[in-house]
Specification:
Layout (H helix, E strand, L loop, with lengths): L16 H6 L3 H4 L6 E2 L11 H12 L14 H13 L8 E4 L2 H12 L5 E6 L3 H9 L3 E10 L2 E4 L1 H11 L3 E5 L11 H13 L3 E5 L20 H6 E5 L13 E5 L2 H8 L11 H13 L1 H25 L13 E5 L9 H9 L1 E2 L1 E2 L10 E5 L4 H16 L5
Parallel strand pairs: 1-11, 3-4, 3-6, 6-7, 7-8
Antiparallel strand pairs: 2-9, 4-5, 8-9, 10-13, 12-13
Helix pairs in contact: 3-11, 4-11, 7-8, 12-14, 13-14
Pfam families: Aminotran_1_2 (PF00155)
Organism: Streptomyces antimycoticus
Protein name: cysteine-S-conjugate beta-lyase
Length: 398
């Protein structure tokens, strides 16, 4: 008698393909119907119940008028409390400003703090829209190359220090936890970066949107919490959208450490850079204040899934290098040892009918890499892994 399949975690493992394909979001809507998507960084899980309840209450009140926020949205104080409670960082609510998403946060800070042709250090590989932003804004990219070691992905701080000095770098964009490798930088590593920033008087733009997706025993440390000097030179970017699957609410926050930069931002014409929707604020506030139970279940599911990806890749594709992510829901697979002779993204799509992301859009050192989004149900993930391993293993002895 065949044993019954483990039903998994309710609310996470009971999603089905018909529901996923009926959604209008780009992840499932754009690919052909026979393709399983694991590319764009959206989760496949339903919206957290506390967020649904908060949004429904606002709609039921028929309350979609102009909000009365003379001192900014309530999300400013919610963010500051959350940083103190979760990370021991005394962030200041009056230094928080709302934007529509993290890309806009980054672009606004770069626009205000740097000029055409200025050098900006950034980790590579990296989130493609960040790299595209730097190119489009004509900022000189100073690459901080992540190195694949037996202990995982690491940074060469001596090389970074030298590159920053030689380029006359003005700012450093730090993505921690890191997309796409899943690294969570330690206190010592962050201290090395802080010393470099102090030595060369760098503005640090710290993207911490994946902080809520960190797996024990790893611990997220806000860069601005390291010291008074770090606090005064750091702009922190984050949002509830990644950790709570709320990308479409279009709401993010920026915490300004430098007095001069905050004053410059506030001197701009009102609404020049847009305003956030009250519904985005309501959704983000509900996630951060009432979503902890849902989020604990989420991390349990994602922890299981990251281990499943690592186990299957290690066993069935032993030539492919993959480190167990310390955060995020993204696997970063090095297929170069397979000598495919073509883009692995194209190979997996053609042979396995799975859409992944990867390649040069993540940086000059990302050719031959695949990024696999494992934030999906147990069944869908198993189907994805079966197709991916078959597509990469065929004719390669994997």
């Amino acid at each position: 008698m065949t044993p019954a399949r483990d039903p998994g975690t309710p609310g996470f493992d009971d999603v089905d393909l018909a529901w996923l394909r009926a959604r209008g979001s780009v992840k499932w809507h754009r690919p052909d119907e026979d393709v399983l998507p694991a590319w764009v960084a959206d989760m496949d899980f339903p919206t957290p119940p506390p967020v649904v309840a908060a949004l429904r209450e606002a709609i039921d009140r028929r309350d979609l008028g102009y909000p009365d926020w003379p001192d900014g949205s309530p999300l400013r104080a919610v963010f500051a409390r959350r940083m103190a409670e979760r990370y021991g960082w005394a962030a200041s609510a009056d230094r928080v400003r709302e934007q529509t998403d993290l890309i806009q946060c980054l672009q606004l800070v770069l626009h205000l703090a740097t000029s055409d042709g200025d050098a900006v250090a950034v980790q590579v590989p990296n989130y493609p829209p960040f790299l595209a932003t730097l190119r489009t804004m004509n900022r000189q990219v100073v690459p901080m190359e992540m190195e694949d070691t037996d202990e995982g992905w690491r940074m060469d701080f001596a090389a970074l220090d030298s590159a920053v000095k030689q380029s006359g770098c003005k700012a450093l964009v730090l993505v921690n936890p890191h997309n796409p490798t899943g690294r969570v930088l330690t206190s010592d590593e962050l201290g090395e970066i802080a010393a470099i920033a102090r030595r060369h008087d760098l503005l640090v733009i710290s993207d911490e949107i994946h902080a809520d997706l960190t797996y024990a025993p790893h611990r997220h440390i806000p860069f601005a919490s390291l010291s008074d000097d770090a606090a005064q030179r750091t702009v922190t970017l984050t949002s509830a959208t990644k950790g709570f699957n709320l990308a479409a609410v279009r709401c993010a926050v920026t915490h300004y450490g430098p007095d001069r930069l905050l004053a410059l931002r506030d001197s701009q014409p009102p609404d020049l850079y847009g305003t956030v929707s009250p519904l985005g604020v309501i959704a983000s506030q509900a996630a951060w204040e009432d979503g902890d139970v849902w989020h604990r279940d989420l991390l349990s599911v994602l922890d299981r899934n990251r281990r499943r990806v690592h186990e299957v890749v290690s066993r069935q594709l032993p030539l492919v290098r993959h480190h167990l992510p310390e955060a995020t829901y993204l696997g970063w697979l090095d297929t170069r040892p397979l000598n495919l002779g073509e883009s692995p993204v194209e190979r997996v799509l053609r042979e396995g009918r799975v859409l992944l992301d990867g390649g040069a859009a993540f940086g000059s050192n990302a050719d031959g890499f695949l990024r696999l989004n494992f934030a999906t149900s147990q069944q869908v993930l198993d189907d994805i892994l079966e197709r991916v391993t078959a597509a990469l293993g065929a004719r390669n002895g994997g």
